[in-house]
């Protein structure tokens, strides 16, 4: 499967509430919305999201949707989806100039990816490319918006149940969602879906209908979404007190959003061939924020090992900084916790070494 298919250039068909018998056990109890219970009066949506409503209700989960990825559009902030009142179809008609670029980029990145990620690394080079990636994405994904002039509007608390994000680190459209989560100061469950994924891609295919990323599940509202632009708008409307996404976040992805993927030569894109195949009893935990150069290296490793983890976003001004201080006595990130072994590290080199040694198939 090529990176082209990972970033959703094809049309997809999916049901908003797939048959329960095909869902993994962890998805079976999700309260998917019905036409009578989830109304616009309960959830606030942007004008784009409201196109998904019919007579004030979410389109019945019995209807099927047809949508082209907004991630392939020249300007993903300009929605082109339309709802058919007759059959509940959501369609998008747009060009996809990114697809030809991806078909060339994927094999090139593979050539320069540096080989086995568990082997000795040139950390000076690693930090240099990761730092350049950080510069390319300033100012997005570094700061919680609760720290700015809009703090009274934006300050958020984590929802009762954690959001679940299926993504892979190298994807620029997944990065867009992670940046939004940093700005909204959200703690989420991350299910890495690298190319060659053995578990998490199957979960997405069964619950959503296609292996398309990013894919968000919000168990608090029963909403599940593809399309990075839709997800970002939903997150800001639902967990940002209805405020619009920060200026330039959506539009920037087709420009500087690709830079970390290119500079990091596709790290965090492909499953490590020696990774363990069995899921862990308890999820790992990582204190991080999206645009941190050191944390990026750790997230890449977690993706290449397909290890699910709880991402505690602690951007500048985060409301959960005290949790990081309690755990590590420092504000530095990344900070890693493995509840399965009791290991805790605050040094990215130690974290990388630990992950590839502990979660290699050879150690099982």
From TrEMBL:
All copies of domain GST N-terminal, residue ranges: 161-243
Superkingdom in the source lineage: Eukaryota
Region feature Disordered, mapped onto this chain: 67-95
Ranges annotated as biased composition (Polar residues): 72-90
A Gene Ontology cellular-component term: chloroplast
CDD domains (alphabetical): GST_N_2GST_N (cd03041)
Pfam families, A to Z: GST_N_3
Record protein name field: GST N-terminal domain-containing protein
Native organism: Quercus lobata
Gene that encodes the chain: LOC115958900
